[in-house]
Amino acid sequence: MTPAARLQTAIEILDAIAAAAREGGAPADTIFAGAMRARRYAGSKDRRAIRSHVYDAIRLVRSAPPSGRAAMLALADRDPALAALFDGSPYGPAPVASDEARAETGLASPALIDLFDPLIGADETEAMLARAPLDLRTNRPAGTRDDLAALFPEGQAIAGAPDGWRLPPETAAVQNPAYAEGRFEVQDAASQYASSALDAAPDMAIVDLCAGGGGKTLAIASLTADRADILACDVNRARLRQLPPRAERASATRIATRLLDPGKEAAMLADWQGRATRVFIDAPCSGSGTWRRSPELRWRLTPARLDRHVADQARLVDIGADLVAPGGKLLYAVCSIIAREGRAQVDEFLNRHPGWTADDDMLPAGIGRAAGRGFLLTPARDGCDGFFLARLTAPC
Ligand SMILES: C[S@@+](CC[C@H](N)C(=O)[O-])C[C@H]1O[C@@H](n2cnc3c(N)ncnc32)[C@H](O)[C@@H]1O
């Protein structure tokens, strides 16, 4: 493909990604993979170049653009070599008209930035779109962090995460045989902090209410040396199905899974009411703390979708609270930096549940900032994904 044809292909893929973002369709990676399958004539160099145009444009443009071309023109304004490819050559983009619209650039719309936790300063926004490192977590039963240091000497320890080892972005760590042997997992430091903050220990009875594919469930199993019973739940069958093979690889033997029906979660967990020593709720959210990995998430966030997340979170935290044994703890986590999903959610929970208290000693020294009655982690301050965490203790 010519450089201009690659650029035109990137524009067409961006059209599809923007439409999917508006309509709640497939994620960008899925659309990109499908578009490449449909263009079998594209070689690996073409694919790399197209991918880089697409993701550079997504990072630059702050919300779903009116067209892929408007997004690419915004990128071309900053890159004369790219601008020169709008030359009207066969299969390439048409020349730029004098009055052509550009997509708006920046981190997010001012209305969305207004929703961030008030702790977040303007100096923190750049890191929210910078490339994320690749963080690994030692699987305790199968190894130590020293093993990771020997396997990947180019890495470094992660502050406050005793099992964490940080590598440069895009390191092909999972191709190392030690991954298939279950000696480590790929897991961002924020998820490691969240799992440790649950304060789980051997012999506890633990419910992971929104376990997904089990990233944090496995971290909790590792922290308890596989000596606690963990019930991993989710409403998404495809995600939950990933957990048993992952648990087997990690030699985690005490994780059971339970697929829940939306709206019937409490009834389907009736046997756990008031029995769990720990409940972990990694709630569905805007994902606004993970824009550095999935920048197109900010193209997807609408006021209506945010309202739905906030309502789901409140419902899930109430369902989770009913599972907690007297004196037990509930860890509420969202990979979000939006105050309504974080500190406000916890304030409202504590108003609805007299007798519950928020813990203030849940993170390692130097990690996170107190945000209301929970803690905020951000890429700029903590070097990890943006997260809000709160640990709540039930009355005895
Ligand atoms: C942030 S993800 C969890 C990620 C997971 N904990 C991990 O570490 O990989 C949120 C999960 O909540 C699940 N979810 C959404 N609504 C739910 C509900 N009503 N009950 C249980 N899980 C739900 C989603 O399917 C999704 O897997």
What is the helical fraction, as a range of percent?
A: 25-40%
What's the CATH class label of the largest domain? Alpha Beta
Strand content: 15-25%
Ions, cofactors and other ligands present here are: S-adenosylmethionine
Q: So how many helices?
A: 17
CATH H-level name of the largest domain... which superfamily?
A: Vaccinia Virus protein VP39
The structure class reads: alpha/beta
What is the total tally of β strands? 13
Query: What is the terminal-to-terminal distance?
Result: 68 Å
CATH architecture of the largest domain: 3-Layer(aba) Sandwich
Indicate the mean pLDDT: 96
State the major sheet: 9 strands, mixed
Give the ordered list of helices and strands.
HHHHHHEHEEHEHEHEHHEHEHHEHEEEHE
Flag low-confidence runs. Answer: none
* CATH third-tier fold name of the largest domain: Rossmann fold
Oligomer designation = single chain
Index terms:
alpha/beta; Alpha-Beta Plaits; Rossmann fold; 13 strands; globular; binds S-adenosylmethionine
Structural account:
The protein is an alpha/beta fold and 396 residues long. The chain has 3 domains: 3-90; 134-186, Sun protein, domain 3 (Alpha-Beta Plaits, 2-Layer Sandwich), CATH 3.30.70.1170; 189-393, Vaccinia Virus protein VP39 (Rossmann fold, 3-Layer(aba) Sandwich), CATH 3.40.50.150. It is built from 17 helices and 13 strands. Strands 5, 6, 7, 8, 9, 10, 11, 12 and 13 form a 9-stranded mixed β-sheet that branches. A 4-stranded antiparallel β-sheet has the order 2-3-1-4, sandwiched between helices. The site of S-adenosylmethionine (SAM) has 20 residues, from helix 10, strand 6 and helix 15. GO terms for molecular function: RNA binding; RNA methyltransferase activity. Keywords: Methyltransferase, RNA-binding, S-adenosyl-L-methionine, Transferase. The active site is at residue 335. This is 16S rRNA (Cytosine967-C5)-methyltransferase.
